[in-house]
Design the sequence.
């Protein structure tokens, strides 16, 4: 997807994550309205998580980490198995999506 990570005052701009998800949508092509609602929730949850993580840990959530979280999220939905030994930041984001969107708890 080739998204450049831009930071302002040590924080990834909100547009970087939105651009990442917009590019994901382009790659998928047409999505039914329910899938679009899920994508909207993914975006909102990711931005809220990014801001909370920054406030609590003084670290940013990068586009690369969000991309990895999407891969893991899709894998968990397919396999019904949560991988061990994930980076804490990525694992937390994936767990948030699973809980809030799919009502699955790992």
Sequence:
């Amino acid at each position: 997807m080739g998204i450049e990570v831009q930071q302002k005052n040590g924080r990834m701009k909100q547009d970087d994550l939105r651009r990442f998800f917009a590019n994901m949508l382009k790659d998928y092509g047409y999505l039914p309205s329910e899938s679009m609602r899920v994508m909207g929730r993914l975006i909102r949850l990711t931005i809220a998580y990014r801001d909370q993580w920054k406030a609590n840990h003084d670290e940013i959530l990068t586009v690369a980490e969000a991309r990895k979280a999407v891969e893991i999220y899709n894998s968990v939905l397919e396999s019904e198995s949560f991988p061990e030994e994930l980076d804490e930041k990525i694992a937390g984001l994936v767990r948030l999506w699973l809980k809030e969107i799919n009502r699955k708890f790992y």
Notes: The chain has one domain: 12-102. Confidence is low (pLDDT under 50) at residues 1-12. The longest helix spans residues 33-57.
